[in-house]
Each structure stands twice: as structure tokens, then as C-alpha cells.
Prior knowledge:
Layout: H1 9-20, E1 25-31, E2 34-39, H2 40-56, E3 64-68, H3 73-84, E4 88-92, H4 98-108, E5 110-115, H5 118-125, E6 128-129, E7 135-136, H6 139-142, E8 148-151, E9 173-175, H7 176-189, H8 193-200, E10 206-211, E11 221-225, H9 226-240, E12 247-249, H10 257-270, E13 273-276, H11 283-290, E14 294-296, H12 299-315, H13 318-341, H14 346-366, E15 374-377, H15 384-392, E16 397-399, E17 401-403, E18 407-410, E19 430-433, E20 438-442, H16 454-459, E21 461-462, E22 465-474, E23 480-485, E24 490-492, E25 496-498, H17 500-507, E26 513-519, E27 527-533, H18 535-544, H19 552-556, H20 559-573, E28 582-587, H21 607-613, H22 615-621, E29 627-635, E30 641-649, E31 651-652
Parallel strand pairs: 1-13, 3-4, 3-5, 4-10, 5-8, 8-9, 12-13, 14-15, 15-16, 27-28
Antiparallel strand pairs: 1-2, 6-7, 10-11, 17-18, 19-20, 20-22, 21-22, 22-23, 24-25, 26-27, 28-31, 29-30
Amino acid sequence: MVPSQLNTLPKLLRQKYLQYGSKKRAMRVKERGIWQHYTWKDYYEKVKWLSLGLISLGLQPDDKVAILGENKPQWYWAELAVQSARGVVIGIFTDCLPVEVKYYLDNSESKFAIAHDQEQVDKFLIPYRDKEGKDHQPIVEENTGLKKIIYWDTKGMRGYEGTPIGDYSHPKLMGFNELIQAGIEYEKSNPALFEQNIDSGQGDDIGIFLFTSGTTGLPKGAMIRQRALVDGTRSWLAVDRWQDHEQYLSFLPPAWVTEQALGVGGNLLSGMEINFPEEPETVQENIREIGPNILFWGPRNWESVTRLIQAKMIDTSALRRFMYRIFLPVGQKAADLKLETGSHGWFWQALYSMAHFFVFRALKDKVGLLKVRCAYSAGAAVSPDIFRYFQSIGVNIKQLYGSTEMGLVTIHADADVRPETCGPPMPGYEIRLSEEGEVMVRSDKLFAGYYKKPEATQKTYRGEWYKSGDFGHIEENGHLVIIDRMDDLKELSGQRKFSPQYAEIRLRFSPYIKDVLVVGGPERDFVTSIVNIDTENVGRWAEARKIAYTTFTDLSQKPEVIGMMKNEIARVNKNLPEWSRIKRFVNLHKEFDADEDELTRTRKIRRDFIENRYSYLITALYDDSEELQVDASIVYRDGRAGTIKTSIKINAL
């Protein structure tokens, strides 16, 4: 088939199967310490039998199938199986609570659910409590339209289906292997059906619902066409040209648009090998073992690794610290020259080679970045300091811009990387600014609308142009600069504007700050902030100075830790306009938590929610308080509620 005819993911899978068969690996996963390999033939056959098995259970075109699980081959197989039958995948994040899972199922009208393991299956089978404290019957009983719950990891599932052994056996449960066997049997009487279904697939078919992050309300199901999934990735591939011998580690949630483009689509278009970690906790270890060539981390991951490296350098030997301090400026100078002119020059190239040999090579190897050819960040702005840092040690990091609705819109070319920008548009995308400075995008790769929300869809368009809700500007060279969300731009008294995100991303460059919320308002004269310390790095810092502490709360309120935070904020304040500098701050007594609605499932701050929840704390930041007694409610992962009583210090700079 010519590329224009390969307009669905199942068609791409079939092409790779015919090209490679059993001669090349498509993916591998680490299980119990051993890598399990799957060829393109394995991939194709698993998808075929799962698809036919679902059809034998009653799956019809346009039916919705929810997938809830960690990054594993089975997630990919299930997605392609549903789409091969012209069904629609509903991506759900693994850390969603039962009340959230029910919302996604009800909103999408899902007929089937495919779950990873006992933990995910229990979300369907066990009574739960919502965030208001109301008790509910199990989802499987409340949602009568759900026909089957299919699980792929059998650990802990003995007695859950089939012959009752425990208390949770249920007739709607079914194992993955049982579904595959049903597909094998169904193929005997329908030998050509799978191929016919692939051939009948069209680029305008809806392939997946990806739910918005819900920063401004309930998540909405964005309908993504097959054409957008394929052509959006094809545009990306035209810039960075991934190769079939390259390695990629999949750990971004497949319910996020970026993993759909890079993991699912990138694998099917380029033939590169996908690797799946054993557990989320082993990602860093698996990255070092694999040495991926293609790597995508969200800004929080890059910030976390930066903090890790900086903390390790604090703890290392005096000689290594000396070498690091000598050669890091060399890397920074060489990176700046390359960013400005496209070349190091022979002198700085020679010095950089020495820096790489003595310091950077081992440093990158320790964190699994030694073989990276293309490194990406998206989802939120990444600090230019972090950007420059990784460029300095030889990691080719690029910043992307996009969203669930738009896909990935801009990217840096290798010869034109600029830390402050997101790059120019990818092939097939156009960008422009509204009179208010809002970024607008036009492309045939945009989403097909929000499911059953035509008014909400209409509000996001101005003619053919999608209104992103982001405030930015376009440089003369065509690069896009994103400053903040339109709704998040703040105004101080005297109509002075400032961007909270601008300060927040620079503060998160600190190894000791995990999260931060910058606050202001038209009735306020100055800017304040609520800080989440990085408990691991701050704890290590405290132990090195023999500062005793017991809990996160205790550590956050230590005078020495508060003094350190003052220094970190003062460092960032130097680069801010005077009216937008942070004057007062608190170290919060707890971390921001997605289970308490303070963060989205992609780890973005729900700004309005937090400002409302901690309004009493913000009020104290703007009066003459020096200390505040807090009686705060918390929600545990099992739904139980509790309280924390503590004293929080209000700090001035």
C-alpha cells in the first residue's frame, strides 16, 4: 500500500507484519527479571485473536472499550484489537480512583473493559466511596451496560471468575488467555473476517477517546480519528526520522496523546522496538539497562532527574565534585555556541570532548541517557535552565507543544534548537495568534470534537482555527513561545500582569522544590507562593547537616529548610520583573496529590482548586501572620478520610 492508503493503525500493523514477520522484534517486556520478546508476527496474531474474541462476545463497530492498565504489550494489543474491529478505545489512567473510572465508563458508554491486574479489577468489583463520602455499589453492578471485564495479569485473580473460590467471583470476568482462545475458535468459522475488518477501516474512523486533563472542570472525551493518529505521527517522523533499529522505553500513560503518537504510532510507522518496564518503580533502572535511543519525559521527569543528579553530586567525593564544577561550564559554553551558531568550533569541541570523556559520559550512563539520540519534553513548559543543562551534558532535548485536542503541533529541528521556544510547526500544521495573544492552530489532524458535547466543541473554534487557550507569541524565525494559559495570567493591583507559570518552572529547577504554586490577584500588591519540598533531596540535605526530623510536615517547617527555600526563591526573583517577585511563601505541610484533585492525572496543578482549597493559607500570606494553625483534611488511597493538625510558618523574603 502507498502511504496515503495506510491511514489506520491496524493497516500499519499488517504492513509491519508482512515486512518483518518473525525476523524482527516489535516489543519486549521485563517480567520477573527476564525480558520476554514479541516479534511482529506475535504482535499481529495477538491482535487478531483478541479482536476476533471481542467480536465473538458481541463487539460491534463504534462500540467503546475501556483499557485500564500499566504500560505493557497487552495495552497495545488490546488497543489495536479494538480498532481492528472498528471499535473505539477509551484510555484510562491507572491511578484513577473507582469514582473516576465510573465517570469515564459512563461518559463514554463503554461496553467492555480491559484491566491489568487485581488492583484494577477490584475497582470494578468492590464497593467504593466517592469524594463526598457517599458509599456506592461496585461499578460492575451500577453500570449495567458493561458486558465483560477482561484482565491480563492472573496474579491474585484465583477465584475471581469461573468456579468460585473467594468472595469476588463474577460472571462478567474473563481472562486474557480465555479471550484469545475464543478468538482462535472464532477464526475457524470466520477465516477472512479479521483481514476484511482491517481493509474496511477508514482514516475518518474514531480510533480512541483521550480525556482532557480536567484542569478547568470535568474531563471531556476528545474523539481522535485514525487519520490524526497516523498522520500526526508521520509529521513527527518526517522531522526526526526514527529508525527500525532504535530502542524506545514506553512508560508514559497510553491514555495520553504523546504516548499514542510516539509509542503506539511511532512503533508502527518506524518499526523501532518498544520496551516496557517491569514496574513503574523500575523505570530508571530499566532505562539505564536498555540505553534507549528515543526518550520522552514530561517536564516533571526532567526536573526529577536534574534534582537527582544535583543531589548525587552533593554527596559524591570531593574529586568528582571538582571535576564536575570544572567541566560543567565547558559543556554550557559549548552548548550555547551550538544553540547560537550551530557549531562548537574546533577549540570548544576539543574541550567538550575532554568534558565528555572525564565527566558527562559516566554521568549520562548513570541515568540511562548515554545512547539517547532524540529526547523530548511536552505537556507543560520546561525551564530553560533545565533545557540548557541537558544540552550541556550532551542530551539532545527538544521541547514539543500540543494538546489532547490538537495532537503535537511544534518541534525543534536538530539544527535549530532554542531553549525558550517550542520550535516551529510540524508539517501539516499552521499556527497564528488572536488579537489577545491566544495561540490558534489549523490542521486536518485535529480532534473530531468532544463526545456528546457539541457546544463545548464549538466554543474551542474560531472558524477553522482551534483556540488552544494558551498565551504566547511567534518569533520572527517561526518558533512558538508559550508563556502561560490565558486563564492563568494574573493581574496585580495597578493592572500589572504576571505569569505564575514563568516563575514556577524556574523554581522547579531547584533540586529541593518538587512543586510550587505562585499566587497573585488584582486586589493584591505582591506575589506569594506555596511550596512543596522534594522530601528525598531535602531529607538527604538535612541528614548531611545532622538536622533531625520525623515526618514530611516536620521537615518542611525546619528553620534551616525554610532558610534554604528563601535562597532558592531569591535566586529566581533576580530574573523576574520587580512587581512579579515573590515576597512571601509557605512550605506546605503535605504534597499536592492527584487523589485529592490537587493535580490532574498528568501531574498538572489544578490552580483554581488549590487556590480555593488553601484560601485560608493564601489569606495568611497577605496579612501580617507569621504562623498559622492548620487542621487539614486528607484522603487516603482506600477512600478513608483523615486530618492533619500542624503549625505552618509564614515566611517573608
